[in-house]
Amino acid sequence: MTTTRQRPGRRPSRRGVQPVARSRRGRRPEEARRRTADPVSRRRALRRRWVALLSVLTVVGLGYILFFTSLLGVRSVEVTGARSVPVEQIRSAAAVPERRAMFRVDTDAIADRVATLPGVATVDVSRSWPSTIEIAVTERTPVGYYNTGEALYLVDTGGVVYKEIPEPPAGLPEFKLAAVGPDDPTTRSVTSVLGALPEQLRPRVRQVRAESPGSVEFTLAGGKVVRWGDAEQNDRKAKVLGALLTRKGKVYDVSSPELPTVS
To answer: What does pTM read for this prediction?
Structure first.
């Protein structure tokens, strides 16, 4: 019978593999490493929290300054494009809240209020930092006037009846139409014809008449009558009319520019 002895301090090997001795010199236990790293991790975490808190407070503070204080509030209102409409009338209609924070100014509401003025066609309202509201207006351009039987009103290039006047304006013709309005086809035809007339001829027009969009005619200073017809070929008709007016006559018909007549 054979007896196997094993040396003290060694364990039997498994499957013939000798155990490997490992030295613990120079290494700290895992718990010691965690205790050493924890204070550093805590300081980093605390620092991140402070940075996040300061960031939130900064955003909230800026938001409060921009939206709820007068630091960046309205200080002035500038109006551009006004000629016949008084600037002070535009400012009064705009009713821009003084010292209100710029971000809280309702520019659309301001534009709507200014657009109610009779002589204003379009309005654009914008913010000019740090403290100015800019109002840019486009005024209506009158091309004639309309007598309703009770009062006289200016008519613009779009056929809008927009402003009461005390007397007939110099250099503008009277619209002798059954009705005047931007949605009326006859009105649109008349305003298109007037817009096509040469600059030197337009002030000579005294009256414009039309029963339909295709029957536009007007009377010039001195009594000459021009039969224009519809609002087609306006440029060509204007050139033909310029040549016809050099001839003597009472009625100048350019409704068919290929066959104009003078009578």
So the answer is: 0.70
Residue of 223, 259, 254, 249 lying closest to 239 (CA atoms): 254
Three-state DSSP state, 254: coil
Assign residue 114 a region (left: φ > 0; alpha: ψ between -120 and 50; beta: otherwise).
Answer: alpha
- H helical segments located in 117-159: none
Tell me the pLDDT of the chain (263 aa) as tens digits.
444 445 455 555 455 545 555 545 555 555 555 555 577 677 777 777 777 767 776 666 556 666 666 667 899 999 999 999 999 999 999 999 988 889 889 999 999 999 999 999 999 999 998 899 999 999 999 999 999 999 999 999 999 999 999 999 999 999 999 999 999 999 999 999 999 998 899 999 999 999 999 999 999 999 999 999 999 999 999 999 999 999 999 999 999 999 999 99
CATH number for the region 142-262 comes to 3.40.50.11690
Which superfamily does CATH assign the domain made up of 76-139 to? membrane protein fhac (3.10.20.310)
- Rounded-to-integer distance, Cα 225 and Cα 32, Å: 112
By the 8 A CB rule, do 228 and 254 touch? yes
Between the alpha carbon of residue 75 and those of residues 65, 131, 220, 231, the distances in Å are 16, 5, 52, 50
**Ramachandran angles phi, psi of 186, nearest 5°:** -65, -40
Which strand (E) or helix (H) includes residue 60?
helix 30-68
